Structure formats: C-alpha cells, structure tokens
Amino acid sequence: MLNILNRLRGGIHPPDQKQMSAEQPITLMPFADRLILPLSQHIGTPAHAVVKVGEKVLGGQLLAEPDGHFSLPVHSPTSGTVIAFEEHRVPHPSNLTAPCLILAVDGDHLALEQQGFEHFEQASKQELLNKIRSCGIAGMGGAGFPTDAKLKPRSNKTIDTLIINGMECEPYITADDRLMREHAADVVIGARILAYLLDYPKRCLIAVEDNKPEAIAMLRQAAAGSQIEVAEFPTKYPSGSEKQLIQLATGKKLPTGKLPSDIGVMVQNITTTVGVYRAIIQGKPMGARVTTVTGKAIARPGNYKVLMGTPVAHLLRETGYDETKSSRLILGGPMMGFTITDPQIPIIKTSNCVLAPSMDEFPAPSIPQACIRCGRCAQVCPMQLLPQQLYWYAKSRDQEKLQRYRLFDCIECGSCAYACTSNIPLVHYYRAAKGEIRTRQQQQQAAASAKLRHEKRVARKEALQAERDAKRKPRPKPEVTPDHMSAGDIIASTTETLES
After folding, report:
1. Residue pair 163/261 in contact by the 8 Å Cβ criterion
2. Do β-strands 74-75 and 161-166 pair in parallel, antiparallel, or remain unpaired?
C-alpha cells in the first residue's frame, strides 16, 4: 500500500486510449526499401562514420563509431548498400536536420554472427559495460542517455534501489506493455544483469501501473524465486516520469539539480532493459525496437518491431493510414510527443509511438484565451510548481524569476496545459524559456572561456617578452682583481701609483 509520503502529488487521468493496440501482439514490420540512420540517436556527441558510399554492409555491422565518452555507435539494422551520407530531417520538436547514413536494403537479410556472454556473472563488469556500449544501448524511454555511462560506478555513490520502469503512463502507447507480456523472461534477466553491474542493490523492482494486469502476471511468473520484486502502482499520469516514480517507489524526493544516483537510486526503462539482455546474452546491437502505431486514422493499429531508420511514412503505409481522417501526426504520445510535418523522418532508438489521431480525437487547437488565474494548473502539477507564474515570467522573459520559480524542475509532462481552461499551450512557453536560458548560459560560458584564453595569452606574451628583455640586457663587466690581471696590467698600475 502507498503511504502519504509515496503518494503522487498532482497528476491527471486522461483517457488512456490503449485499447486500440494493447491486445495486438508484437508484429515484425515489413522492411522499407531504404533506411535513414542518424549518426546521433542519443544524448551526446554524434558518431563518426566508418563506411563509405557504395559499400555493402551486413546486419549488425558497425557503420559509425563513438566519438568521445558520451557517444554511441550506429549499426546496420540489416544488409544493404550505403548509398548516401547527407543531412536529413530527424525526430525533433524543431524539425532539425542532422547527418545521416542512407542505406538501400537488399532484402537478403544477411547478418554478422554475434557473440554474447553465456554466463554473464563470470564476466567482469567492465567487459559487460564495454559490450553494452559497443552494441549502442541507450535509454529508450526518454532522452537516449548512453546506458553504459549511466551504469558506470562512481566511487562515492552506492545504488541501493534499482527500478525497472514499466509504468508506460502516457495515453495510447502500449509497446512496453507488450514487451512485458511477451518477453517477461528477457526483462527479468536484463534486470539481473543491471543488478550485477550495480553490485546488487538492496532492492530491485519492476514498476508497473495497475492497468496492465497481464504484464504484471507474466513478470511475477518470470521473477518467481528471484530477488526481483514486481510492484504495481495506481494508474495516474505522469507516474512513469523518473522523479515521480522514484517518490512512488521509495518515498524519496529527488532534490533540485540532483541525479537519482545522488540519492542511491537507478531507473532504467523496460525497453532499455531488454536491449541490455539482448546485447549481453545474444551479443545483438540495437538495430530495431518495438513501436506502437495507433490512432483512429490507422486501419491496423498495433505494436510493431521496426528497424532503426525506417521512415514514418513506411509505417503509415503498412498500417493503413487514412490522411483524410487525420488531424495531425505525432511522434511519441499525446502529452509529451511532438507534431511532425515530414513523414520521411526515421524511427530512432527513442521512438516509442507514432500517433495518427482523427479529427474527433484531436480537434483543431482552440484559440488561447487570457489566463484567469483559476489555479487548476498548479493543482495538477506533479512537481508542485506554479505554472501560471512561470507562464507570466516566460512571456516577459524574466529569466531571474523563472529560475527562482524552479523552471528547470518542470518535467514538461503537459498536465498543466491539459487542465488549462484558457487553452494556453503552457509547455511551449516553458520549453522556449529553457532554450533561451540555456543559450544565454552557453554564451556567458563562451565569453568567460574567451576571456580566460585572452588573459592566458596576454600572460604568455608578457612572460616571453620579459624573457627576451632579460636576454638583451647587457651583462656588467666583471671587476678586475689582481688575481685576474696580466703582468703588463700590474706594471702599468704600479707605475701609475708611484707617479701619483
């Protein structure tokens, strides 16, 4: 039972709309003719391409290697030929472009033979971390943080709680639900691998919302006899957000500016956990993921195993998308996803859903009205912020007040905008304000770095000049003493003395 400390503050209960896809088993999506593979599908530095245009590649072959610590490799999802290396639009709220490898699929489905660890506990932790990195495993439920970097031990931090996040609280999305139902054993083994890498935390739990009874039953059956707990929590959005889940599961509140590891907690997504299992046990790189394709404009909604780099347009074609019924296309869920205008963007590691709602599901956005300060946004905010105040300060670009009112604690869950009686797109203002503050901070850091470089350069020049001046300064003539005088000098000196 949840006590008062663990209870989720705020939050909302939007219609979950999961019934369209929840009962559809995972199905392999037919391969597209070409794949678009961004060199950055994670937080950090983009990978560096190691193949050339015209080169034939096999499934699982390395296409791009990591470039630095916070970087991950990119592998070929299947066999084919690299036909281009170009800028292409990628999944991003701002419709950004990024460097991508374009792969023409040959249909032969040839792949490299991969080698995993039959008994992972007999391998060193560093070997397993290296394997996770070399397979390109990233967080697949959020921003795509490199999993090996997240798991690397810190000498001053001990993880006492490992949480496998199977909450999947956002409406429409059922990819994790189906993974837990159909691959519960893989989830449990993946959790055991993560626990081993973290020196076996005191508590390891798989957290699931109580609207997924089949997944809970399958996980409990797979975890029977192990130290892994399957915990169910009340259905409420955004209970699957990292900060909220930590509080629900442990009673601990994550302080502002701190990481979960600072309070002894590690959270990993269900799909990431299965990715770790496949990397370690089977040696498989991350070349595909389960993505929910749903909405009333889709004739065959379901959960599909999709190759990385598959264009969204291909998914829409294969699932019977009716553009005349659709109000918009969303990558992700209705709360935290974003509208896409170019269906040629590819599926990447973090793409858990393609949503094509009908006009009656998602009518045209209402015209925003003036804020009436009703306070509903504050009531539903899970971070206990004051969204209306943040809105006013974002509009006036008062960055000092925005930071004082904890703008960066906002998790952008969209609960405030959902509850807003004035139809104000509040999260849009917060995202823009965060971007402006980050840009300003980057400019200040760049200016400070430039000033420091200038001061060091001036100091070096002054030191060099002082050294040159010291070399040019004439040396004083040594005083001549009798010990160093020649015989002639002594006679001359004696004569001068006698004459005087």
Report:
1. no
2. unpaired
How many angstroms separate the Cα of 380 from the Cα of each of 49, 230, 241, 372, 404?
45, 28, 14, 16, 20
pLDDT for residue 4: 46
Between the alpha carbon of residue 104 and those of residues 54, 308, 315, 347, the distances in Å are: 10, 13, 17, 16
d(CA 499, CA 315) in angstroms, rounded, equals 118
CA separation for the pair 443, 160 (Å, rounded): 39
Paired tokens of 273: 């956990």
Positions in the chain short of pLDDT 70? 1-6, 153-155, 475-500
Q: What is the pLDDT of residue 366?
A: 87
Max alpha carbon distance in the chain (Å)? 128
The end-to-end CA distance of the chain, in Å, is 118
- List all residues 6 or more positions away from 195 whose beta carbon is below 8 Å from its beta carbon: 162, 201, 204, 227, 228
Handedness of CA 161, 164, 168, 170 (dihedral sign): positive
pLDDT at residue 442, as a whole number: 85
pLDDT for 153: 67
User: Strand ranges (DSSP E) for 270-331?
Assistant: 288-294, 302-307, 330-331
CA distances from 392 to 4, 289, 371, 389, 396 (A): 32, 40, 9, 5, 6
Measured CA to CA, the distance from residue 195 to residue 203 in angstroms comes to 9
From residue 88, how far is each of 39, 92, 306, 486 by CA, in Å?
11, 12, 19, 88
- Under 8 Å between Cβ of 237 and 11: yes
- 12's tokens: 């909302």
Cα–Cα distance, 220 to 181 (Å, whole number): 11
Q: Is-cis flag, bond preceding 238, omega within 30?
A: yes
3-state DSSP assignment of residue 86: strand
Q: Give which of 236, 286, 331, 270 is closest to 2, Cα–Cα.
A: 236
Question: Which of 201, 230, 180, 195 has its CA nearest to residue 120?
Answer: 195
The Cα–Cα gap between 78 and 80 comes to 7
* pLDDT confidence of residue 1: 43
What number of other Cβ atoms are within 10 A of residue 440's Cβ? 11
pTM summary value: 0.86
* Residues 239-250: b if buried by 16+ CB within 10 A, e if exposed: bbbbbbbbbbbb
Helix (H, G, I), strand (E, B) or coil at 250: helix
Position 146, amino acid: P
Between the alpha carbon of residue 413 and those of residues 30, 269, 328, the distances in Å are 33, 17, 20
Is the separation of the CB atoms in 433 and 408 below 8 Å?
A: no
